[in-house]
Amino acid sequence: MGLITKAKGAPKSDSSSSGGGVKYICNVCSQDVTATVRIRCASKQCPDYDLCVDCFSKGEANLHHDPRTHSFQVIEPHSIPIFDEGWGADEELLLLEGAEQYGLGSWADIADHIGGFREKDEVRDHYVKTYIESARFPLPERASPGDKRLSDDVPREEFQARKKRRIDTRKEAIAEAQNVVPTAPTKPTSSGPSCHEVSGFMPGRLEFENEYFNEAEEAVQHMQFSPEEGINPATRMFDPETELKMVVMGIYNDRLTARTDRKRVIFNHQLLEYRKNLAQDKKRTKEQRDLHQKLKPFARIMSRPDFVSFSEDLEKEQNLRQAITQLQDWRRMRLSTLSAGEKYESEKAQRIIRTANQNLGQFDRITNGIRPGKGGPPPPPETAQAVTEYTIKELPVRLSPTNATFTAATTNGALPTPPPGQDVPIKRAPLPTVPGFSPLSLSADTSPDLQLLLPEERELCSKLNVQPKAYLAIKDAIFREAMKTDGKLKKKQVREISKIDTTRGGRVFEFLLEVGWLANAAPGRQPLPKQPPNALPIALHRLSFLIVHEIGMVATAEIYHPRMSYIINNYVSRVDISPYEIMCM
User: Fold this and answer.
1) pLDDT, tens digit (0-9, with 9 covering 90-100), for 152-185
2) The SANT domain covers which part of the protein (predicted)?
3) What is the model's pTM?
4) Which of 65, 285, 579, 581 is the Cys-Cys partner for 568 at CB 3.0 to 4.6 Å?
């Protein structure tokens, strides 16, 4: 049998408990002779033919080996350090052999090839230190055959004892890691195909009643290899019959590898927990189920944590796209508040139901339980999850739409909280005119951006003889400066920022104080009272996101655009905070 390497399709856990690595087996008694002295046949008729010392001393042989005429070699493990105190010569050879077989960079496979519970990071660091960073690159520093300083300083017995202690320590660490969280047997102990969630799976054997390529064994079940078959000593080639059998065995091994790969995906991604996965799937919307169905092929090339994170990120992206699409649809319909959007969706669903009922015949309506003219109110529209999560969920709507009256309480001078969908004008004394300035007549034709102002702001612009575009620029500059000082400014600062005469600048400051968009930072002034605990819920971050995306722009806490004023003030009617606090979220 000779050299035995770990199968490429074997799971990583198969070699983790035993340390992995190359193993040498006696061809007669199948004893492991990897770590002991072994006898290797040197004849060309017996490639990779190894014997243990006991079988060699008794003259045991099989296959083409003839101990009377074949020459042999006595091979003992080269467990002595030559380049590094912690690495033996045998491990150095296996390192180079693994690098040649798997390629540099496949450090996990090379570590499994070396065995001895070597870790991939340890193997990589040793290779870089010994071969790459060597002063005699590409040779190691101690590559001279006469350099025996390490082997003389560290005796073989001491090196073997160190290696044994290292292996025992890592074995214990692996055992402790496996026993930290003991997994209770969730599956029945019986391996019957019908005793568990997935029909046809036998947990005791970790096999299925019908495997992938279930007929793969039929091609090799009657195949036999006789001692006379094999390599012809004269031609050193397989005879035709043996070559055909080897081709069939290669096909069989490929099918076993494909079967193992699929089992690994099933076990690693916990697909056998059918009821749990089914319950999670029922909680998803149709769009989410379709998305997860399309993502399933990626599970074969990803670990479970990576696949779960990958799926959640794509699901979040899909929800954001759906929310943006719906908000853009509302914007095209000239809707600027959440309540208007909800009303639009409700009426849209009712219209669809009425159209469907009109297309049904009389008997079809009776059969479906809908009598003409006596049908109840249609069910409320089912809001998409993305829109619910990013636009409506957790918004502090404190008053029910059925309430006919409400208390107009103000907080921080902000607008009172009206029922959803209604706006309440600011109750204050009329603005006096500014001496020396006649009121300005504003209209949509002569005053650009007039539609972005509240009625009170329009009155202010008219009395101050300021165009809406200029007022928006002034308010933009004031808010930018206020965001740096926690919403507090002095009247002198507002006058300097507005870059207009002191009288009109002071009127702008007083107006912003009155509506609660600014706080006075002058000495002796009382700071703004704290908001009640329920006035600043986490949902305000969602509200900020909605406001920004509904007008088709991207903004951060440091960016403010005058067009947001109109939309922000429409949302103040639903949330008891000032527009400035919304901007600072």
Assistant:
1) 787 777 877 888 888 888 888 887 776 655 454 4
2) 82-135
3) 0.34
4) 579
